[in-house]
Amino acid sequence: MFSNFITNLKRIIFFGWQSLSRNKGLSFGVIFIMSVAVLLITSLFLFQGFSEFLISEAQKKVDISVYFKKNITPEKIFAVESDLRQTFPKVENIEYISQEKALEIFKEKHKDDTLYLDALKEVGDNPFLASLNIKTNDPNIYSQISNFLGREPTEDLIEKVSYYQNKKVIDKLFSFTNNMKKGGIVLSVILALLIALITFNTVKLTIGSFKEEISTMRLVGASNWFIRGPFLIQGLLYGIISVLIVDIVLFSVLYFLNPKLGNWFLDFNLLNYFKTNFFLLVSVQFIFSVILGVFSSFIAVHRYLKI
User: Fold this and answer.
1) CA terminus-to-terminus distance, the chain
2) Which one of 14, 109, 185, 269 is most buried, by most CB atoms within 10 A?
3) Residue 188 neighbours by CB under 8 Å, 6+ apart
4) What is d(CA 192, CA 117) in angstroms, rounded to the nearest whole number?
5) 293 and 150: one domain?
6) Residues 290, 246 within the same domain
7) Which of left, alpha, beta for 133 (phi over 0: left; psi -120 to 50: alpha)?
8) Any transmembrane segments, and where (predicted)?
9) Domain count across the chain
10) Domain extent at residue 71
11) Residue range 113-137: average pLDDT?
């Protein structure tokens, strides 16, 4: 029984390969379109990693700058700092910047810019406010810190908090990456439908060239699945070949262009991400392409062979 199964499987695979190789022009068209779709899915996968990297890097640079009113003494500011450290253990660092230090930082930053320095002289008095710069190990608690600072009596000491300006940048970045993903998914669906249609018609034409073989199979008592098998193998081969082509080409491009790509992608290492997530990526590619190829072939066989 098992030996018969192996023999039949070998024949099905052989006939499937023969079907693919006999219709080289049509097969090339299907593989090309499917490779484009697999490349798009792969690009979405890589973009997912890049967007997570961008958001992570942006969150690392986010902090809260709390500016206190002019008449607030350093003692009261240090009391707020102490309350923050006790309430939020994940606070990594809190830096106190006095009015005098803020003025020094401004002068150092704009030492070669006479316009700013002249404007500062016109003001006369020190226009800067004392502040606390807060950094945490967990960007998700910044909103909690901001809410804490907005409560009485702390609220009465504070002139402004910079967190909401930084948060808007993160939210816009997150919204942009989400929209890009949605657009990519829509394009993938359109390509998937196109591939299904092309594969369907390719298998339909292939069936026409195998009418005599199919008739012979039926005459000798071949089962329906034995007749279907080669066409399903053909769809399977479309998917496997497409994935191999995309991964070989993509790895070659990333390998040779990785240093330049690092500059374009803000030091995000695409090659390293590709290698680290290779097995997950290949799994996604195979699931997408193989199911698409086999499903299209199955529908074509079912519709046109009437079996």
Assistant:
1) 25
2) 269
3) 37, 40, 41, 44
4) 61
5) no
6) yes
7) beta
8) 26-47, 185-210, 231-257, 277-301
9) 2
10) 63-163
11) 80
